[in-house]
Amino acid sequence: MSSKKKDTPRVTEGKGAPGTRSDPVGTGGELHQTAGGTHPVLTTNQGTPISDNQNSLRAHPKGPTLLEDFILREKITHFDHERIPERIVHARGTAAHGFFELTASLADYTTAQILTEVGERTPVFTRISTVAGGAGSVDTPRDVRGFAVKFYSKQGNWDLVGNNVPVFFIQDAMKFPDLVHAVKMEPDRGFPQSASAHDTFWDYISLTPESMHMVMWIMSDRTLPRSLRMIEGFGVHSFRLVNAAGDSTFVKFHWRPKLGLQSTVWDETVKIAGADPDFHRRDMFEAIQSGAFPEWELAVQLFTEDEAAAFPFDHLDATKLIPEELVPLKVIGRMVLDRWPDNFFAETEQVAFCPSHLVPGIDFSNDPLLQGRLFSYLDTQLSRLGSPNFHQLPINAPKCPFANHQRDGHMTMQRPVGRVAYEPSSLAPDSPRETPQGFRSFGAAESGERGRVRAESFADHYSQARMFFRSQTAPEQAHLASALVFELSKVETPHVREAIVGHLRHIDAALAQRVADGLGLKALPPAPRAAAPILDMDASPALQLIGKMKHTLEGRCVAILINEGSDAKALAAIKAAVLKAGASVKVVAPKIGELKLSDGSSVAVDGQLAGTPSVLFDAVAVLLSDAGAKALGREAAAIDFVRDAFGHLKAISIDQGGQALLQTAGVVPDAGVLAAPDTAAFIDAAKTRQWAREPSVRTLA
Ligand code: HDD
């Protein structure tokens, strides 16, 4: 057989080894010099240099591939095992590194150094997630957002694993698998992905009155965030702080975004899902890369056992919140996220949060939901990461020294030395031992009979739901009622729809009527029996979203739609005003590349019109020449651009050409549509939504 070596196509240019910057093991390999610069040699996982990474070993150029090709088999085998089980809930998430800085000491309440050493900066890794969808689902379904923070404190890792909603669906962890099965895609058909608008979810909810308060939150605009940088976070449960004298104080944790709260409107949310499925992840990435670091205040509510006893609800019930008007928030620190992960899998995917990761000076409460969580997360990490050594992964390892006598196991990275792997020992005086400063559980007195029971103090399921609904502004109430109509209109089983409306009657009669009307019900269904008297609690304005929006454009993004020949001066003026207000600008035009303006100068275009709709922005300007307006009047994307901006209650700045496009689109300008020269008025209007416009553009329940 003659050698055909010279005919065999070969591609051998070095492409560089995978990045190994933060890899403690490294991939080794000597450095080689090529035309492209110095780079590591590509090797197998055993360090054998590879001469051809493009062609497998074949018997001859047109022959079978040989089993002998250990390089191919190693590469494909590793590839086949690239995925680990995604999280059963909260699978889709976005995370970043940063720091927590304490600004006020809680030394009277706790020995936890992270809460007593003012000015100390503790590294954090924070992951924000949706709950119901898979890892590849879109960023913007109507869903709760997980808000998990890992503090790498000097006394060990503390994980505060919360949500952007301060209450939860259920009171007992026993119910969690059923809740999750009900909201996830239905098992026979495999849909819907990442949506609660289907029969099984609402069937479960209709039979779970304790979820009614949470239902108010998830149907509110809180679950349609504009940006992950604009959500609040809550530890949800009561925890305990324990001081040096051993005294305990209850505490609730709150994260408050520096940029204020902001949401999208439902129609906009639906369209964003198509325009940019990674809307929130990209937003966070771009903010961090540009140096506009997301920031939150950490605040606490502190209260004693006696104060808790006087609340008209049980604070150990995770379906209840403590109104800020009852126990005010005390700001104690801030968190800044200033570094995007180097590698999504190694960090965002492999990070393992557990509410049981706690430091001395903080302790759990008897909230039965929290107690169940203390088991679940460790168990899930064992299954997801496949080894009790998951704490050795760089993203999970404490940044303080840690040492014990646990040993071996699947994929351990540690190489302990010496013969002593137990405690107490006398053979190795320098081996790890207990310390009086170590973690101590609070000595809470417990009494009563054991049993599978729900405390009577957990029986009121409607008072706080009512308080939440009645605390909202009129547009928020209308959005909430419309969300219920939307969700229930997707439910095919009439008795499920009716059962939910029955529950709503206990919350607010007018709300029940609005939803019943929206669903075309002829009569109001009966309300179920309430297990406890329903209270009229004082309204809590702190529960509003619109009320807590900041009048600011900081951290937002404004689009300027232009075409060939647009007014250079007007463009420059709006750009300058937007940047001055702390927002970013994107120029959108029918084509990307460079565009000639009215004065002959050119401008770089950031987004092509068809792929950059106005739903991606907080406000828009439309600056067009007469010819430009005429041309865009025949473009569906341009018509949708202005119609949607108007329909989504955004401020719009227009010149004469912009006005012509609005007219072609059938948009009748109102107070939120401003003439282009007046940049100040536009910026002011852009700092909020034009809520007064809403009744003119859509019928809400
Ligand atoms: Fe949970 C993940 C938040 C109740 C069981 N949960 C998970 C994450 C967050 C929360 C933010 C994602 C963490 C990350 O980014 O990796 N969960 C909550 C909150 C709850 C709650 C605020 C109620 C107050 N969870 C809850 C219960 C159970 C679980 C009652 C089980 C008894 N949660 C899990 C889990 C997950 C999880 C199955 C999936 C992935 C993971 O843990 O790491 O163990």
Descriptive labels:
701 residues, alpha+beta, 10-stranded antiparallel β-sheet, 6-stranded parallel β-sheet, 19 helices, disordered N terminus, binds CIS-heme D hydroxychlorin gamma-spirolactone
Task: Compute the average pLDDT.
Answer: 94
Q: Supply Rg.
A: 29 Å
Beta-strand share of residues = 15-25%
**In angstroms, what separates the terminal alpha carbons?**
81 Å
Uncertain regions spanning at least 5 consecutive residues? 1-28
Number of strands: 20
* Global shape: globular
Structural class: alpha+beta
The oligomeric state is single chain
Q: Can you summarize the main beta sheet?
A: 10 strands, antiparallel
Q: Supply the number of helical segments.
A: 19
Task: List the ligand species.
Answer: CIS-heme D hydroxychlorin gamma-spirolactone
Helix content: 25-40%
Which SSEs are present, and which pair or pack?
Layout (H helix, E strand, L loop, with lengths): L30 E4 L2 E4 L29 H11 L12 E10 L18 E10 L14 E9 L2 E8 L12 H8 L15 H8 L5 H7 L14 E2 L4 E4 L5 E10 L8 H10 L3 H11 L5 E9 L1 H6 L19 E10 L4 H6 L12 E3 L3 H18 L77 H9 L2 H16 L4 H14 L1 H10 L38 E6 L5 H13 L3 E6 L3 E4 L5 E4 L1 E2 L10 E5 L2 H7 L3 H12 L4 E3 L1 H9 L8 E3 L3 H8 L7 H4 L4
Parallel strand pairs: 13-14, 13-18, 14-17, 18-19, 19-20
Antiparallel strand pairs: 1-2, 3-4, 3-11, 4-5, 5-6, 7-9, 8-9, 8-12, 9-10, 10-11, 15-16
Helix pairs in contact: 2-3, 3-12, 4-10, 11-13, 12-13, 15-17
